[in-house]
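Example 9 (inverse folding). The structure is encoded as follows.
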């Protein structure tokens, strides 16, 4: 039998795999992490498949054997390999990178340089013999350890004569895994029994007992090295058992389902009738009760013994949906997020893989969880930009979710009040099933939105960031002891610092952006690289003292609000206040308990929250994103405004919104005022069609970064030329645009340029790019279906 193996270093050749033979008796299966010889080294690989060696007769060389099994990836299934293959193919990343998405611990694999001895080495002096004895008595001796014990010249002599050689050894540290159990796994133990009495002893003990935690054996005096050695040779096996601990120790009062509204009921029934796993776009206005629909369908799946995956944009800010599910379903739910400890993460993963838990709630990366019996995937706030990963591999969560659901034949629900234009288009084309909820629950009205033209405000002499209408709304709200949310999409105090005499703007030393003044620390900060600087007392350029702060960030608004409403209790939520552990969720929950009157913040305040006592929403600068030179500026703005407005009037009190803008005539502002998705969509899709933007054309963004501006452009031009030549030769109508300077010219001392590939179908362009090593140079970033 043969094993087809993906090796980590094949990052260079995107999907190349290698064949190895499987030694008799070794237990290998798809998903196993194995150690294989690769050139002169040993490397870790992941087994993709196992099959008959049909070419054995014609092969002119012998395949090398797998050396050892490092570990089994728990719950690894064929389906995951297929999805990883698709990811690497579609998003132009290496197969190894795509496979790693499905690993429990992505970074937990430790890598050490170890040393091995060549057996039967001849003519050693006394000192050398000692080294060799030491190496052969231990498995996986670290090079560093050896250097500690023995003289450098002795070792150097051994290396140069190739009596010793080093190799890379990667594996999970057994000691980290207290929940790892060890069991006996082999019938024929003759060979090793003779070699080491200690091994024989442990094997015998294992054969006679039930699996026990590794720690038990270690306590009995068997070393980790010894255990590893047995496992590596297939005599014993490490399995992992989730611990009994539960996720939620704090008791939450159980709740009972609502009596569904007619619209909710109809939506539920449509999805209940699903056969074969379609994708449903659940477009429901803010406050239409989408969560209740998710929970009803979840209950159905649980009743059949299936599992449900619930994806949310950012777990720290959407603790509310977690609470809803936990109230309803108790400890059957596990939560996956980045602040879990390694053990908690592993535990939750195992519970899902074994089928012990049935609901998994998490952000983007939870889409890679191992499932036992997946019955439904829910993507809440499906339009949220956090679903597109902006690091390698740059996958889109919705696409991965649909791939995985297809294997389980289960439906996917994409829920949003402001669906992504691309997904709405797909729904209208019939690729998704469109379900619309037109009304809020209990016929509650949508909030009333007033638009304030800030140019007029200025003409009337009001230079304040708060318009008169805004002040009036807040005054009224505070008087009635109701709550308000204020959105400003810029953190910090002032957005830039400029010399009034010469126009000098203080920029970051390593990024081409203005630094932002943070009054709390009285420092300037770069929002791209986090660098800090002192505020200059005199202009660094002309020496004048006329340094002035321009622009308004959340910090400044907080100060102004406090001046204007001294009695109001104000909470600020942005990247700066959220940074402290869990504090995003803490601020939101304190606001829910009405410990604050005003919640002020960046787009985080607009995300899906359901506060019953919020009757007012103020949007300070509605058009802050609108003028970005990117095709999705209008879409992102409409979503942000509509979502923000939708936080008002969700309880018994009707909501009011004031929206400040410099562009009241813009269709995005007007549609957001009416919270009219259809009207927005029609204008937006017409514009996309005219300019051939997604969803009509696909977009591949190639970003090139380099410290040296000259080589940067050389790379850019080389890649452009390659693509142009391909285009001509293949008579493709794909557009190759650029290279041009990126929106931000330089970040962290690296210059950035962009090359765009745009076309109706980029399959062939991508195939070309995959085959050419130039596109895999360091500093060349490939972003398929770019939204950045
Ligand atoms: P959405 O996610 O669509 O914006 P939510 O799911 O947050 O809306 O629901 C809004 C509010 O309405 C929540 O407080 C929820 O408990 C409540 N709700 C949901 N369904 C019903 C119903 N059928 N009857 C009464 N209230 C409901
Ligand atoms: Zn100056
Ligand atoms: Zn910077």
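The amino acid assigned to each position is listed next.
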């Amino acid at each position: 039998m043969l094993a087809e193996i993906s090796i980590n270093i094949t990052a260079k050749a995107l999907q190349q795999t290698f064949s190895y033979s499987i030694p008799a008796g070794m237990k290998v299966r798809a998903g196993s992490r194995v150690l294989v010889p690769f050139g002169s080294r040993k490397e870790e690989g992941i087994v993709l498949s196992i099959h008959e060696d049909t070419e054995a007769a014609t092969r002119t060389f012998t395949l090398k054997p797998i050396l050892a099994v490092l570990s089994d990836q728990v719950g690894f299934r064929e389906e995951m390999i297929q999805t990883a293959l698709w990811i690497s193919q579609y998003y132009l990343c290496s197969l190894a990178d795509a496979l790693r998405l499905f690993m429990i611990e992505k970074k937990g694999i430790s890598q050490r340089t170890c040393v091995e001895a060549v057996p039967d080495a001849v003519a050693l002096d006394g000192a050398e013999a000692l080294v060799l004895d030491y190496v052969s008595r231990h498995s996986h001796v670290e090079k560093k350890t050896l250097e500690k014990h023995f003289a450098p010249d002795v070792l150097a002599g051994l290396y140069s004569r190739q009596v010793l050689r080093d190799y890379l050894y990667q594996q999970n540290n057994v000691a980290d895994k207290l929940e790892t159990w060890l069991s006996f796994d082999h019938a024929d133990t003759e060979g090793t029994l003779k070699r080491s009495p200690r091994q024989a002893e442990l094997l015998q003990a294992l054969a006679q007992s039930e699996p026990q935690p590794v720690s038990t054996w270690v306590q009995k005096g068997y070393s980790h090295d010894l255990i590893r050695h047995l496992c590596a040779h297939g005599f014993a096996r490490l399995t992992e058992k989730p611990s009994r601990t539960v996720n939620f120790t704090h008791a939450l009062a159980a709740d009972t389902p609502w009596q569904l509204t007619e619209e909710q009921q109809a939506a539920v029934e449509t999805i209940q009738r699903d056969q074969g796993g379609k994708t449903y776009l659940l477009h429901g206005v803010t406050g239409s009760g989408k969560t209740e629909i998710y929970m009803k369908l979840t209950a159905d799946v649980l009743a059949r013994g299936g599992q449900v995956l619930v994806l949310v944009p950012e777990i720290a800010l959407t603790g509310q949906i977690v609470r809803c599910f936990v109230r309803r379903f108790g400890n059957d739910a596990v939560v996956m997020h980045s602040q879990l400890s390694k053990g908690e993460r592993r535990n939750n993963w195992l519970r899902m893989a074994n089928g012990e838990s049935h609901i998994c709630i998490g952000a983007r990366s939870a889409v890679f969880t191992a499932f036992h019996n997946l019955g439904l995937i829910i993507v809440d706030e499906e339009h949220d930009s956090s679903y597109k990963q902006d690091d390698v591999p740059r996958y889109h969560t919705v696409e991965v979710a649909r791939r995985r659901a297809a294997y389980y034949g289960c439906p996917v629900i994409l829920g949003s009040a402001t669906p992504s234009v691309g997904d709405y288009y797909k729904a209208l084309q019939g690729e998704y099933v469109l379900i619309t909820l037109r009304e809020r629950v209990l016929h509650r009205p949508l909030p009333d939105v007033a638009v304030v033209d800030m140019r007029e405000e200025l003409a009337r002499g009001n230079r304040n960031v708060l318009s008169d209408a805004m002040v009036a709304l807040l005054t009224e709200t505070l008087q009635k002891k109701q709550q308000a949310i204020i959105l400003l999409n810029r953190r910090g105090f002032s957005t830039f610092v400029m010399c009034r005499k010469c126009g000098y703007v203080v920029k970051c030393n390593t990024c081409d952006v203005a630094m932002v003044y943070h009054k709390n620390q009285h420092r300037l900060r770069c929002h791209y690289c986090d660098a800090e600087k002192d505020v200059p007392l005199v202009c660094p350029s002309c020496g004048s003292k006329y340094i002035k702060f321009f622009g308004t960030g959340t910090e400044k608004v907080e100060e102004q609000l406090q001046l204007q409403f001294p009695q109001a209790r104000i909470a600020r939520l942005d990247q700066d206040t959220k940074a402290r552990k869990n504090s995003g969720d803490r601020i939101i929950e304190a606001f829910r308990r009405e410990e604050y009157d005003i919640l002020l913040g960046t787009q985080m305040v607009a995300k899906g929250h359901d506060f019953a006592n919020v009757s007012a929403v103020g949007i300070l600068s509605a058009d802050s994103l609108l003028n970005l030179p990117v095709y999705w500026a209008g879409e992102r703005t409409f979503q942000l405004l509509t979502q923000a407005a939708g936080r008002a009037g969700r309880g018994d009190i009707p909501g009011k919104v004031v929206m400040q803008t410099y562009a009241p005539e813009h269709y995005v502002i007007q549609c957001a005022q009416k919270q009219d998705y259809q009207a927005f969509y029609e204008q937006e899709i017409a514009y996309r069609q005219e300019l051939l933007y997604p969803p009509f054309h696909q977009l591949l963004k190639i970003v090139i970064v380099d410290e040296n501006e000259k080589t940067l452009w050389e790379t850019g031009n080389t890649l452009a030329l390659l693509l142009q030549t391909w285009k001509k030769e293949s008579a493709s109508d794909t557009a190759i645009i650029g290279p041009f300077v990126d929106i931000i010219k330089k970040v962290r001392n690296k210059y950035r340029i962009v090359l765009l590939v745009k076309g109706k179908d980029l399959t062939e362009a991508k195939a070309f790019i995959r085959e050419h090593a130039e596109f895999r140079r360091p500093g060349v970033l490939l972003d398929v279906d770019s939204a950045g």
